């Protein structure tokens, strides 16, 4: 029985068409969707199955269709309906199934309406549960018919198969009957145990039902009344059954049954369903319903394909072409134009120029004299040829349109225009302006489909616009990075020349009686050379603008970067200041989400600061530690300690603020201020403690591994 599924149970095409149209209605209400679904057992089965699944259900018992719909939400309901329609359309549904489905639809709905009326009459506390259980009580028949269509049709066509003997023949043919299947499904859907029993025993002998639960007796009696109804209503037999179960007399039961029968016929008439069992299965209404369902499914499928096509657009021009192509493909609108919304100027701007001067048309959104602006502001599909357009007093007189609307209409070589806004609740993207020759007011189906189209396109445009923005941003970043690389290259040329002249000048300062270090200008030249190298390094960072953005995602291996920096300075900075280094790195440290270049600049600044703080030379101690807990969050710790004399008191008070440097002229004193800002940008903290034995900088960075 595990192989028997409800996700492909067929419904009458007439009902599916009604549901699809409701899905496409502008602002289709929950009540409207609920009303239509509650008339069809197959769709209800899908809804109950999904609502009671572990994904949606959170332990609340679902006893009504309304509750199930509330759990799922309107978007999921629409998906269920559209999926059901598409599956049925492509399942090879045969017209000979219509007779069975009509009988099933009539009986299920009649039984459900009778059950609800009897529940109220007999004071059952949950009439909606009675309705739901009754609507699904014969769902096993549709399961058997959908899984064994030929065999089940042959079985039901046998003259000896009457309703009360159907279970026996089902058992012989399939080793299971529809009551057992229905009860098993009800249990799978977590319906109440009494609902499961009501479905399983609705063909039991009357004597065995008399002491059963209230719901079981309700469904039993309702099923009998729903099966026979007026043509087979035997006063004595049903009066006895009604009285035995609920002490209800025959006259009251007749009144309920006759009213329900009238209600069902009225519903069938509304849906163009001919429920006369002897009706021609190829009646005009049936053919129209199947053709209409095919058209709906085809256009829904095309719209969803169009959404996929839009996602391939690389810029706004491609997006506009895709939208115009979609209108022609889906609706046959060969002439259309896209008016893009400019959020800065609050204008709708045509996607192509008009006239010889190549100036696009612009429509102020705040000025609702234009139909284009009205459509965008009200989020409505609007046609200039309809009588309900406030922009004109006469629908057929184009001269009453605003001048800009007349210009747009002439530009499209058309009698009128249709305006379709593409917007979500938050964002307006554009307005599609379409050439038309006739009013849309007479084609409600076309309007509904256009509204559905605009809603789907709004979601697709939202995603595609985000992608285009990223593409343009990447292109802009790449262009900026390329220009920065050119500038860095050009700037380094004169710097290299200056550096070469410094080397030459240093050589000239060296005489036979003294070394370079002894010359009075040596210290000043060293400062110039050092700052020249610093400037060169800063300029070279311009080449890495794009790389820094990429490194935001790749993060940094702290231990590796510290080792590399120490190796780099081992024969330059450390030799210059007669310093060495000692590492104590935690090997459990993992890659963290800090930018690589950002981290390198932090450590570089602190290492240089430590080296320069030891004029007599010394050792720089660098250590790391993982899994430091601060206020419940994980951090990594970096310690950089020198053996210098410590910081002067006046410097310590304003340590991380821009100050006059103690290193002499030519130093700005911005190093530690920049370091603090870099640590802060990395969502970390930096602190310092200093005494006569040296200075220690402590850094904490978030331990967010990648």
Describe this structure in words.
The structure is a single chain. α8 crosses α9, α16 runs antiparallel to α17 and α16 packs parallel to α20. The longest helix has 66 residues. The chain is elongated. About 4% of the residues have low confidence. β1 and β2 form a beta hairpin. It contains 27 helices and 11 strands. It folds into 4 domains: 258 residues, Hypothetical protein af1432 (Orthogonal Bundle); 130 residues, GAF domain (Beta-Lactamase, 2-Layer Sandwich), CATH 3.30.450; 82 residues, Helix Hairpins (Orthogonal Bundle), CATH 1.10.287; 151 residues, 2-Layer Sandwich (Heat Shock Protein 90). The strands form 2 sheets. The protein has a 6-stranded antiparallel β-sheet. A 5-stranded mixed β-sheet has the order 7-8-9-11-10. Helix content is 55%, strand content 11%. The chain has 706 residues and is an alpha+beta fold.
What is the CATH topology assignment of the largest domain? Hypothetical protein af1432
Percent of residues in β-strands: 5-15%
> How would you classify the helix and strand content by structural class?
alpha+beta
What is the helix content?
40-55%
């Amino acid at each position: 029985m595990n192989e028997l599924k409800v996700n492909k149970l067929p419904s009458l095409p007439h009902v599916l068409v009604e549901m699809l149209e409701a899905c496409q209605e502008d602002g289709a209400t929950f009540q409207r969707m609920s009303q239509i679904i509650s008339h069809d057992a197959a769709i209800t089965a899908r809804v109950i199955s999904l609502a009671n699944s572990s994904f949606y259900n959170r332990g609340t018992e679902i006893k009504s269709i309304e509750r199930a719909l509330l759990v799922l939400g309107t978007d999921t309901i629409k998906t269920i309906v559209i999926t059901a329609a598409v599956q049925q359309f492509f399942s090879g549904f045969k017209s000979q199934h219509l007779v069975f489905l009509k009988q099933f639809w009539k009986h299920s709905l009649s039984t459900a309406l009778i059950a609800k009326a009897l529940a109220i009459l007999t004071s059952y506390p949950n009439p909606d549960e009675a309705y739901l259980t009754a609507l699904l009580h014969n769902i096993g028949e549709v399961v058997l018919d959908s899984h064994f269509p030929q065999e089940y049709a042959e079985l039901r066509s046998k003259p000896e198969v009457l309703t009360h003997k159907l279970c026996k023949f089902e058992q012989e043919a399939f080793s299971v009957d529809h009551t057992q299947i229905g009860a098993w499904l009800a249990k799978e859907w977590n319906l109440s145990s009494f609902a499961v029993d009501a479905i399983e025993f609705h063909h039991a002998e009357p004597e065995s039902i008399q002491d059963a639960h209230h719901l079981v007796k309700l469904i039993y009696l309702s099923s009998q009344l729903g099966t026979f109804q007026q043509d087979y209503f035997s006063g004595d037999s049903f009066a006895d059954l009604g009285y035995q179960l609920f002490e209800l007399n025959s006259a009251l039961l007749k009144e309920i049954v006759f009213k329900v029968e009238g209600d069902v016929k009225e519903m069938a008439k509304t849906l163009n369903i001919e429920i006369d069992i002897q009706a021609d299965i190829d009646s005009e209404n049936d053919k129209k319903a199947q053709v209409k369902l095919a058209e709906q499914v085809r256009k829904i499928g095309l719209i969803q394909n169009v959404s996929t096509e839009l996602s391939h657009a690389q810029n706004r021009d491609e997006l506009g072409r895709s939208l115009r192509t979609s209108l022609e493909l889906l609706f046959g609108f060969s002439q259309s134009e896209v008016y893009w919304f400019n959020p800065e100027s609050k204008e709708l701007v045509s996607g192509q120029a008009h006239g010889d001067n190549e100036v696009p048309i612009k429509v102020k959104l705040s000025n609702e004299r234009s139909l284009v602006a009205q459509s965008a502001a009200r989020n409505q599909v609007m046609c200039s040829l309809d009588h309900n357009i406030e922009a004109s007093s006469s629908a057929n007189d184009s001269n009453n349109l605003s001048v800009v609307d007349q210009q747009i209409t002439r530009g499209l070589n058309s009698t009128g225009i249709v305006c379709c806004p593409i917007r979500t609740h938050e964002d307006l993207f554009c307005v599609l302006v379409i050439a038309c020759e006739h009013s849309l007011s007479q084609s409600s189906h076309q309007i509904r489909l256009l509204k559905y189209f605009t809603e789907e396109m709004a979601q697709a445009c939202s995603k595609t616009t985000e992608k285009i923005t990223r593409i343009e941003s990447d292109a802009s970043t790449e262009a900026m990075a390329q220009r920065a690389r050119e500038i860095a290259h050009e700037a380094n040329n004169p710097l290299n020349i200056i550096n070469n002249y410094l080397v030459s000048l240093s050589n000239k300062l060296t005489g036979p009686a003294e070394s370079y270090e002894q010359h009075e200008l040596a210290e000043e030249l060293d400062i110039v050379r050092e700052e020249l190298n610093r400037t060169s390094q800063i300029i070279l960072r311009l080449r890495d603008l794009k790389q820094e953005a990429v490194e935001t995602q790749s993060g940094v291996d702290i231990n590796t970067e510290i080792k590399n920096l120490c190796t780099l300075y081992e024969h330059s900075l450390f030799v210059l200041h007669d310093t060495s280094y000692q590492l104590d790195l935690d090997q459990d440290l993992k890659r963290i989400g800090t930018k690589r270049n950002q981290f390198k600049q932090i450590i570089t600044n602190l290492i240089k600061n430590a080296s320069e703080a030891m004029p007599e030379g010394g050792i720089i101690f660098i250590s790391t530690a993982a899994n430091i807990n601060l206020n419940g969050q994980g951090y990594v710790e970096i310690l950089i300690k020198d053996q210098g004399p410590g910081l002067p008191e006046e410097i310590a008070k304003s340590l991380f603020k821009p100050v006059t440097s103690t290193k002499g002229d030519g130093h700005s004193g911005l190093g530690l201020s920049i370091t603090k800002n870099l640590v802060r940008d990395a969502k970390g903290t930096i602190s310092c403690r200093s005494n006569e034995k040296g200075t220690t900088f402590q850094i904490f960075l978030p331990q967010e591994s990648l």
